[in-house]
Structure formats: C-alpha cells, structure tokens
C-alpha cells in the first residue's frame, strides 16, 4: 500500500468521473522523463497532449516563472501588463497577425475565434451571413459552441440543443466544401492537421482551395493551430509550411509549455469587430502565463530547433516502420514533425487503449487519437536516445498485445 496521502483511488472518491486516468500517479518530471509515486521512471511520448513542447521543468521556463512570480501575478484586463504586451509583439512579429487576444485554453481561443468570425460578418455583411463550415472528425474544444463546430457528434450527445448555423463536410475533399459553402458562410474552420480525428494532415491543394473559396464568398479562414502550432510541424505554425495565410489563427497547448494560456491571432481589419466590451477573459493575458509563453516562443522559434523537429520525425518514423515490418500492425504512419499517428490494421481495431496500457507497464507514456490510431506528441527537444529507448519500450508493448 502506498504511503502517499492521495493516490489513484482518491480520484474515484473525489473527482467527477469524466476522465479515466492511468493507475500510476506522476509526481516529478525532467526533460522527457517522468517518475510516479513509486519511483518508477517513464519516457514521455505524450507531451501532456502536445503541451510540454520543451519537456518537463525546462530551466529557462522555471527561471521565467520564478522571476515573474516575484513581480506580478494578476491584474485583470482593467490594466495591461508588460509580459502580455511583449508576448503579443513576439507573436505579431513572427506571424501574419497584427492583433492578439489572450485567454487560458485552446477551447477559449476557438470560442473567441468563432465569435469574432460571426461578429465580423455581422458588421460587414449583415445578420444573414452567420454560417460556420467545419469538417467531420475535427476537434475544437469542449464549450457548447466549440463542441458544435467540432465534427464529432458524440461530444454533443446529451447537451442539446446546441448552437445553430454550423455545417460540416468532409476533410480533404474540396468538391464537398464547394457544395456546402455559400454567401451565408462567415467562416471555414479547420485544423491543418486533425489531431483528435486521427492525426490527418490537410493536403496543400485542399488548403489553397479553401483559401480561394473563402475569398470568393467573403468568408474568413480560421485555422485551429492549438495542437499543430508552436514548432510542432517544424515551422512556428503549420500554415507557414502550407503557404496559406488564415484570417484568424488560434494557439494554446505548446504556447505555454505546460502553463495554461491560449491566444487568438488575427489581422487589424478583422480585429476591429471585437470592439470594447464585446468579449473578455478575467485571466486572459495573465502576467505569469505570458512571461512563461514569451520564453517558450523565443526558444522554439529558432531555425536549428525547428529543423531538428523534422530530423526527430524521421527517427520516429524509422522506428515505427521497423516495428511494423516485424508485427504488421499499422496500415499507415502519418503526420508532420512531432505530431504523428500510426493507424492500426483492422485486426487490431479498438485495441489502441490496450497498447497504451501495455506501454505504461513498459514505462512509456503515449496517446491515442480515437480507438485505432496511436498518437505521438513528445517534447520538440526530446533527445535521440530517449526516442530510441521509448521505441524499444513500445515494441515490447506491441509484442505483448500481438501475442495476447
């Protein structure tokens, strides 16, 4: 019996049952390694679901947080603060955007983006132009609005009635979009790589086609880069590599390197529609979060680090292909940079969670994207030896499931 005052069974006693966490309870992390209550070591291929972009307890982030914690914690938006202004400058200097809105999460960033898209259309074209077009299997958050825009019906079940004016069509199918977009469309919303939907990258031609259709119908292109952004694909944001510029972009997850923060980026023209009093966030632009995020972006937005993301992708892919040649377990390995998915062959459909559990036994933390896709979203600076060791652990886990 553990001598710790709380353990996994405490969760069942005191927490709402919307999560089903693993049996072990992590207590400490350093780099790409984590230790649980019993002192067992794990390699982290999950990255807190693409959040811990610089691993656990990065010295520069600890330093930024400590420094800011001795200066100023919270003000509310009746005042601005230096870390928020510096972070906004850094984001606008390095992206298409001219204006930034800060909040605390990806869901909040998307909520702000969808509200802004509607308000911009209302201000410029009138109340009829209010339809948002999204894609099946997409994921944009858990608020009632963002879950409606998301393309997975299961997340809306039991929460109806949901907001109206949201249409869905097939990802990577430009003809399907052409059939549904109209002059009543205020925005087309998508992830450059569908994360929860199975790690599915957008085709560059599809992205270019969407941009052209948005221009044609005076609709805004909204890119949800909550999971794909902040160096994850080997570019600061995935849109840069695709060569398609959005009107609104959302960021969170890796933006704070583990400290909660979200941001919505847009142009000056579009930003005008969020005038004084139209939207807000008590904690948005919090000095602690912004000080950490400023350090994160300065470290990540480095050509050498970004170039290394591609090299680490190749290393992951090589290992996954070696495992596949031995066990014939994957139909496809896909993704970009350090957001990767390995889809299970039909024989092993529904067994993603079994591989996750076997991996945990072997000392490896990883993810799924749906029941049939193993997902990898580790630290962008994960050492090569940790990739090699983690993949050896994954192979042992796969072997257990295959021979079970």
From TrEMBL:
Q: Which UniProt keywords apply?
A: Amino-acid biosynthesis, Aminotransferase, Arginine biosynthesis, Cytoplasm, Pyridoxal phosphate, Transferase
Cofactors named for this entry: pyridoxal 5'-phosphate
The record's comment on cofactor binding reads: Binds 1 pyridoxal phosphate per subunit.
Instruction: Give the residues the record marks as binding pyridoxal 5'-phosphate.
Output: 139, 224-227, 282
- Which reaction is recorded as catalysed by this protein? N(2)-acetyl-L-ornithine + 2-oxoglutarate = N-acetyl-L-glutamate 5-semialdehyde + L-glutamate
Q: Which GO terms describe its molecular function?
A: identical protein binding; N2-acetyl-L-ornithine:2-oxoglutarate 5-aminotransferase activity; pyridoxal phosphate binding
Q: Which GO terms describe its biological process?
A: L-arginine biosynthetic process
Q: Which pathway does the protein contribute to?
A: Amino-acid biosynthesis; L-arginine biosynthesis; N(2)-acetyl-L-ornithine from L-glutamate: step 4/4
User: What residues bear N6-(pyridoxal phosphate)lysine in this entry?
Assistant: 253
Q: Name one Pfam family in it.
A: Aminotran_3
Which residues fall in a coiled-coil region? none
Binding annotation for N(2)-acetyl-L-ornithine? 142, 281
A cellular component term (GO) from this record?
A: cytoplasm
Localization (cell): Cytoplasm
Enzyme nomenclature, EC number:
2.6.1.11
Superkingdom, natural source: Bacteria
Q: Does the keyword Cytoplasm apply?
A: yes
Miscellaneous? May also have succinyldiaminopimelate aminotransferase activity, thus carrying out the corresponding step in lysine biosynthesis.
Q: How does it assemble?
A: Homodimer.
Name the protein family: Belongs to the class-III pyridoxal-phosphate-dependent aminotransferase family. ArgD subfamily.
**Which HAMAP family does this UniProt record tie to the protein?**
ArgD_aminotrans_3
Q: What is this protein called?
A: Acetylornithine aminotransferase
Native source organism of the sequence? Endozoicomonas elysicola
